[in-house]
Design goal:
Peripla_BP_I (chains A, B); homodimer; DNA-binding (chains A, B); Rossmann fold; 12 helices; DNA-binding; Lambda_DNA-bd_dom_sf (chains A, B); 360 residues; disordered N terminus; alpha/beta; HTH_LacI (chains A, B); transcription (chains A, B)
Chain lengths: 360, 360
DNA sequence: TTGAAAGCGCTAACAC
DNA sequence: GTGTTAGCGCTTTCAA
């Protein structure tokens, strides 16, 4: 055994404070603070002295104290339902990218699509007095809405524009997205349409897409022939299973609309394996436009949900944030940004109606 | 236009404080504080009064002030390189699940595999004085290591055990993982082995797997026949492209080892499309054991990287955290948990050597 | 069971 | 350019 002798001082029991740096450098706490924050005029000489001392001691400022004193917290609360599908990570990346050019920092909370979790997470985050909140969706518990309204900071609700925002909102209309896809499918000549989705009554965006979808079908005198829902497990595997099941049960189906790309991709794999003629005998479409699927031999028709753009815009609104966010009692001052989702036909959705099984 | 009359008071300009609740309830700040934190004995009567007042006002406590006063912050810094691949979200979920049963809350920072980002993110997080740090990998800049050592809180380095931890470590040996896979492949009778990976010199775990892999091959008198690396883009698509490319360049290859499941899956798709006999003519294996791939028609051979288990264990260590984490100058008091990755053969790796092209 | 006083580590505002 | 003073909103500690 060798006796280890430290050349650096041992780990301190008491965290270092400004005072320590002050004493080590022979400069007042205030000036040290100024140097460390690059605020106010400090002579180059003392600046160097202070920096050296801080680095030497390994001083890490205490933001808790700083925040309390300055009444400023450079944190942005980002509240999303899930991390496990590919959609929110994409939004997060965009948010981070924008905030990287500001003093702001995102802090992520996950709700698992549970309103009570959302309420709790929101409460926790608000208790840190963040500079803004980015939160997915427009549906929140009354308590959550009350908290958001009275927080006195910019709030941006993202992903969805179908509803009444508290402050600002950035997203797409999922109802419209569902409608657009239905219209495209009908125009392509498909008539026996099935739907596959998630068993998530609380996924309001999926619900709205479905509503828009059936609404547009109804306008064309059609309705969904059959449907199936899943919960849990590998989305790809579930998509495969559900597709097999629904096609067996309702063999007349000539199109399947999936509530997300992942189960759509599973369905596509099933069709390829089963030798089903796609998009001739059966058309397929998903939702989200996730890049993941670029590696498949066939491109699933889908709709870009503008995830990156949404994240970017939301972060920008927060970053601007100077403006008053919610006025007292009057109309909301928030901004409204509705993005346009675009259909990507891929090759699982035939383009010309003339090729359809049901020529018009 | 209708004149909106508020039944609830308008959003306050000044955030509410304990004092407000104190005044509204006619109870001292101290007692209000006790009620809100469920600390100490408070009569049921005052308790109800206080709770009612707090709820009525919509009071949200200020954790900044609370943390400063109590010198306690129930935050756990979790620092990971990326959110975009499926591996870290899985770890995060496990961490959250464990911490949900404690007062602790994870706060995530992403480094993009950049040491300088890591250093910055770490500094930011430490300045909030968290109760612990969970950080991916054992390789950090000297400055980062110094910060971790002197933070005076439990540190858990995760994912990898090949190296010297600062405090605790939970992970698998990636070198060993690479070795195990090589041995399995060789035992199965494959001899002309190619490698496909990421262009990430800073992904130390991928590097260690590769080193272990080649080391074990060398022991069997073999070396990697050809290799290819990618950066950016859809991993699935890249896997497909790289596989086509390497097989064209080195047609003698009878096995491809991928540094992750995603590119492996892309490779598998290529093989299926190209009509290549897998695992007869060509074997394939990936790494991570991601569930995503369960929906494929063939199961890619892979190795479980114990992501969930790692997250769980790490969180547990932090939660126990009471123990002194780094002793002064002496040996680290941290715990060491090395998990055993297991090979999942799937069906892209033939099992019996006797079936090999090169019978032994 | 409740309250009063002191102070956590920093920064705003003002002096010098 | 630098230092001094007074809090930020809570919790700790101690007294009642």
């Amino acid at each position: 055994m060798t006796a280890v002798t430290d050349d650096k001082p041992a780990a301190p029991k008491r965290p270092l404070t400004l005072r320590d740096v002050s004493e080590a450098s022979g400069v007042s706490e205030m000036t040290v603070s100024r140097v460390l924050r690059n605020r106010g005029d400090v002579s180059e000489a003392t600046r160097t002295r202070v920096l050296a001392a801080a680095k030497d001691l390994g001083y890490v400022p205490n933001k808790i104290a700083g925040a309390l004193a300055s009444q400023r917290v450079n944190l942005v609360a980002v509240i999303i339902p899930s991390l496990s599908n590919m959609v929110f990570p994409r939004v997060l990346t965009a948010i981070s990218d924008v905030l990287d050019n500001t003093p702001l920092q995102p802090v992520v909370g996950v709700t698992n699509y549970l309103p009570e979790r959302e309420e709790k997470v929101l409460y926790e985050m608000l208790s840190w007095r963040p500079s803004g909140v980015i939160i997915a969706g427009l549906e929140h518990s009354e308590a959550a809405k009350a908290m958001l309204r009275s927080a006195g900071i910019p709030i941006v609700e993202i992903m969805d524009t179908d509803g009444t925002p508290i402050d600002s909102v950035v997203g797409i209309s999922h109802r419209r997205a569902g409608r657009m896809m239905a219209e495209t499918i009908v125009k392509a000549g498909y008539r026996k349409i099935g739907f596959l989705g998630t068993k998530m009554p609380l996924d309001h965006r999926a619900r709205k897409r479905f509503e828009g979808f059936t609404e547009a079908l109804a306008k064309a005198g059609l309705e969904v022939v059959d449907q199936e829902f899943y919960a849990g497990g590998s989305a790809l595997a579930k998509g495969r299973e559900m597709t097999a099941a629904i096609l067996e049960r309702s063999p007349e189906i000539d199109f399947l609309y999936y509530s997300n790309d992942m189960i759509g991709a599973g369905g596509l794999l099933h069709c390829l394996d089963a030798g089903i003629d796609v998009p001739g005998r059966l058309g397929l479409a998903g939702f989200n436009g996730i890049e993941l699927l670029d590696g498949f031999s066939m491109q699933l028709a889908t709709m870009d949900s503008c995830r990156a753009e949404i994240g970017r815009k939301a972060a920008e609104i927060i970053a601007q944030g100077a403006e008053v966010s919610v006025s007292d009692g009057g109309p909301t001052r928030g901004r409204r940004v509705e993005l346009n989702p675009t259909i990507r036909h891929g090759n699982t959705l035939r383009l010309r109606p003339s090729e359809g099984l049901y020529p018009e």
